[in-house]
Amino acid sequence: MALIVQKFGGTSVGTIERIQQVADKVKKFRENGDDIVVVVSAMSGETNRLIDLAKQASDGNPEPRELDMMVSTGEQVTIALLAMALINRGVPAVSYTGNQVRILTDSAFNKARILQIDDEKIRADLNAGRVVVVAGFQGVDEQGNITTLGRGGSDTTGVALAAALKADECQIYTDVDGVYTTDPRVVAQARRLEKITFEEMLEMASLGSKVLQIRSVEFAGKYNVPLRVLHSFQEGLGTLITLDDEESMEQPIISGIAFNRDEAKLTIRGVPDTPGVAFKILGPVSGANIEVDMIVQNVSHDNTTDFTFTVHRNDYQKALDVLKQTAEAIGAREVSGDTNIAKVSIVGVGMRSHAGVASRMFEALAKENINIQMISTSEIKISVVIEEKYLELAVRALHTAFELDAPARQGE
Ligand code: ADP
Ligand code: ASP
Ligand code: MG
């Protein structure tokens, strides 16, 4: 008998019919004799709807504690509905909010981190033969305030519960049948991966593949939780996220391509090139609580240099204001910005043992006449910033160049 944590995302519980289907599925697992803890998201669209209401009530700037108080209600609805549907099928079940389980988090509202999970109540229910349905995305801080874990946070609830309960597997059920070489909604030739390492999945998630929340992958890697991504309503083995990165013969150089449109680029030109210049420019940016991603400083001409960096698009205006002040203070020539950019990244542990990956990437982009504005690399990834309108073309070209395309089906 196994203990399995199953997480169902927003579209999988988006209607009553779907909730009934989830209940049927959970019932089948129970009938196999497995102990089941289910984590559910809010119905699809609900979290967005709630955030929108909050913005309307607060001139676009909701107080973070109150926002969490409200958005956590989305998941409170679905846990109760699923528990009812299970009970209706003769499956004993009980639902709990994060607070009731006691998923203890820090007090960083809207992006709280899980610190500890009490497993006592859940274990007692499992021992009594009940399916336990837990609200995803939420917890409670030391002071009893309700917190939420950031968008997509139900994945993290699932993995954290699996770690705390030492579950045999954490299954993330969603609207695609696994992790693909790239977002299958953007590239029709994308291929499902049977396996991907934690390390690669973490890069993919960090670089924009929203199929799993970044923190859920961090958690799974840290506590070695067997993690699988599966389709909610189709049979199949999905994708296993594994520790194992043993070099097999067919190990591809690149496992996947991630992308995001969430960044904006800022440039400051004609900066007097003296020691400490990077600090003078980026110090005030981080002082304003803005995270910087990619950074490029050009070689200096006539003792002045240009400096370019990217930030999240939501922080663009704030960063631009800060940079303008800095430019005046240090006597730089001009400041400019661009929000029409996108970041495309290739990810793969196979890169470690292969030379020439970067040039192959740049060649594929050059063939499509796509200009690269910025580049950054690490051991297992290469990212480029390009003009946003070329994003899909770039992803498709790279997908083909690195031989990731699914074989054409007969007749195609
Ligand atoms: P859920 O509501 O179940 O949490 P999400 O929308 O958060 O679902 O995540 C699933 C979506 O992730 C898919 O519909 C797909 O468009 C997107 N996605 C992005 N990159 C990938 C990838 N590499 N593999 C699979 N899905 C991906
Ligand atoms: N409902 C939350 C969101 O939409 C959490 C989740 O679905 O994982 O972000
Ligand atoms: Mg999700």
UniProtKB/TrEMBL annotation:
<comment type="pathway">
    <text>Amino-acid biosynthesis; L-threonine biosynthesis; L-threonine from L-aspartate: step 1/5.</text>
</comment>
<dbReference type="Pfam" id="PF01842">
    <property type="entry name" value="ACT"/>
</dbReference>
<dbReference type="InterPro" id="IPR054352">
    <property type="entry name" value="ACT_Aspartokinase"/>
</dbReference>
<feature type="binding site">
    <location>
        <begin position="210"/>
        <end position="211"/>
    </location>
    <ligand>
        <name>ATP</name>
    </ligand>
</feature>
<feature type="binding site">
    <location>
        <begin position="174"/>
        <end position="175"/>
    </location>
    <ligand>
        <name>ATP</name>
    </ligand>
</feature>
<dbReference type="Pfam" id="PF00696">
    <property type="entry name" value="AA_kinase"/>
</dbReference>
<feature type="binding site">
    <location>
        <position position="47"/>
    </location>
    <ligand>
        <name>substrate</name>
    </ligand>
</feature>
<feature type="binding site">
    <location>
        <position position="185"/>
    </location>
    <ligand>
        <name>ATP</name>
    </ligand>
</feature>
<keyword id="KW-0457">Lysine biosynthesis</keyword>
<feature type="domain" description="ACT">
    <location>
        <begin position="266"/>
        <end position="340"/>
    </location>
</feature>
<dbReference type="GO" id="GO:0005524">
    <property type="term" value="F:ATP binding"/>
</dbReference>
<feature type="binding site">
    <location>
        <position position="75"/>
    </location>
    <ligand>
        <name>substrate</name>
    </ligand>
</feature>
<keyword id="KW-0028">Amino-acid biosynthesis</keyword>
<dbReference type="InterPro" id="IPR005260">
    <property type="entry name" value="Asp_kin_monofn"/>
</dbReference>
<dbReference type="GO" id="GO:0005829">
    <property type="term" value="C:cytosol"/>
</dbReference>
<keyword id="KW-0418">Kinase</keyword>
<dbReference type="InterPro" id="IPR018042">
    <property type="entry name" value="Aspartate_kinase_CS"/>
</dbReference>
<dbReference type="GO" id="GO:0009089">
    <property type="term" value="P:lysine biosynthetic process via diaminopimelate"/>
</dbReference>
<feature type="binding site">
    <location>
        <position position="180"/>
    </location>
    <ligand>
        <name>ATP</name>
    </ligand>
</feature>
<dbReference type="GO" id="GO:0009090">
    <property type="term" value="P:homoserine biosynthetic process"/>
</dbReference>
<protein>
    <recommendedName>
        <fullName>Aspartokinase</fullName>
        <ecNumber>2.7.2.4</ecNumber>
    </recommendedName>
</protein>
<dbReference type="InterPro" id="IPR001341">
    <property type="entry name" value="Asp_kinase"/>
</dbReference>
<comment type="pathway">
    <text>Amino-acid biosynthesis; L-lysine biosynthesis via DAP pathway; (S)-tetrahydrodipicolinate from L-aspartate: step 1/4.</text>
</comment>
<dbReference type="InterPro" id="IPR041740">
    <property type="entry name" value="AKii-LysC-BS"/>
</dbReference>
<dbReference type="InterPro" id="IPR002912">
    <property type="entry name" value="ACT_dom"/>
</dbReference>
<keyword id="KW-0808">Transferase</keyword>
<dbReference type="Pfam" id="PF22468">
    <property type="entry name" value="ACT_9"/>
</dbReference>
<feature type="binding site">
    <location>
        <begin position="7"/>
        <end position="10"/>
    </location>
    <ligand>
        <name>ATP</name>
    </ligand>
</feature>
<keyword id="KW-0067">ATP-binding</keyword>
<dbReference type="GO" id="GO:0009088">
    <property type="term" value="P:threonine biosynthetic process"/>
</dbReference>
<dbReference type="GO" id="GO:0004072">
    <property type="term" value="F:aspartate kinase activity"/>
</dbReference>
<keyword id="KW-0547">Nucleotide-binding</keyword>
<dbReference type="InterPro" id="IPR001048">
    <property type="entry name" value="Asp/Glu/Uridylate_kinase"/>
</dbReference>
<dbReference type="InterPro" id="IPR045865">
    <property type="entry name" value="ACT-like_dom_sf"/>
</dbReference>
<dbReference type="InterPro" id="IPR036393">
    <property type="entry name" value="AceGlu_kinase-like_sf"/>
</dbReference>
<feature type="domain" description="ACT">
    <location>
        <begin position="346"/>
        <end position="412"/>
    </location>
</feature>
<comment type="similarity">
    <text>Belongs to the aspartokinase family.</text>
</comment>
